[in-house]
Design goal:
By secondary structure, the chain is an alpha+beta fold. The protein is built from 18 helices and eleven strands. β10 and β11 form a beta hairpin. α6 runs antiparallel to α7, α7 packs parallel to α9 and α8 packs antiparallel against α9. The C terminus is likely disordered.
Length: about 400
Amino acid sequence: MDSLISAAARALAAGDALQALKRVALRNDPPALALRGIAMAQLGEHQRARELLKRAVRGFGQQEALARARCVVAEAEVALALREFAGPPHELDAAMATLEACGDRGNALQARLIVARRLLLLGRLGEAAAALQPVESQALPPLPGAVAALLAAELALRSLRMAEVQAALTRASTAADRAGVLALQAEVAEARALLDRPAARRLTGGEWQPLRLQDVAALRDSGSLVVDACCHGLRADAQWLPLARRPILFTLVRTLAEAWPGDVDRDTLIARAFRTREADETHRARLRVEIGRLRALMGSLAGIEATARGFVLRPASSRPVAVLVPPVDGDQGELIALLSDGAAWSTSALALALGESQRNVQRALAELEAAGRVRATGQTRARRWLAPPLTGFTTILLLPTALPLG
């Protein structure tokens, strides 16, 4: 391997894409094409990077399996940066197996991190955690260590395990400082700043009080009966009753919780749950049916008692009641809150949860997508909607052991 290729690879490993390009910009041999592609990806020119990497794969030929596998890993990260998930994941799996078989543990590690990040972006949180688990038990170099810690922080944030979040961000900060990559350091700083932003609001004394993620986690662990309008369900300690697919029942319990410890008159409950201004006997009969269904679903969490003018919520074990709502009002705020669990939602499921028409939800999603606040995967009936990653992802594309490309 010649000295220019070696110097370009070292420059990329240090995060200096321009210095790498100075050494290989005029060369068209496969190792130089691969390094040029990685440099262009670091500079944000992802389409050009993809072209160069494909040319490098063709140039290496079938006999150079290790070099081809490294290029496949780089292509996979370009696709990740472009949020393109249509490519067959088995190619990346095969490349990872080749790298491990050839003893290239650095690039095999990077391939595994890409797999985990891809699964996370697709909303497959359990699979992402399983893919990351073997990595977390290893002693990692600074750069992949920072990326792995950010992944762990993202997964912990989705379920509000705040102690794990803080520990993961501390590991990420230490590793990013050791790696010396400014983009990675900025990403860790942004993740830390996220913890201090309003994530929800709580009804307290008739007023809405903003809460940070730590406050939301503390509220969930406080023993209160939490009526969660962010995720559309009820929570008490470890018990969780999802009501996203029962919007009328959720509207009823939220209305009762907002009035707790007082009661709510029947006409108010009918107006909010059934969206009608004039109640008649059919609405009152339907209200009794829906209240009965809600009582049966809540079971040991809480009861609902009839009063002279309506109904009142009676939480079990004299628990206090807390109402949690998105940080901003309106359907867009509720959409973002529903998607914040990291799972992939269909338009029809979102419409059902919000009690809106599917067309109205599609319009709201289009506006949020244009603003970069939601994202979509899949096409037509397979299309699913997700929130952006909480911490973002720096495209590293460093090929940690890329020196023996030639």
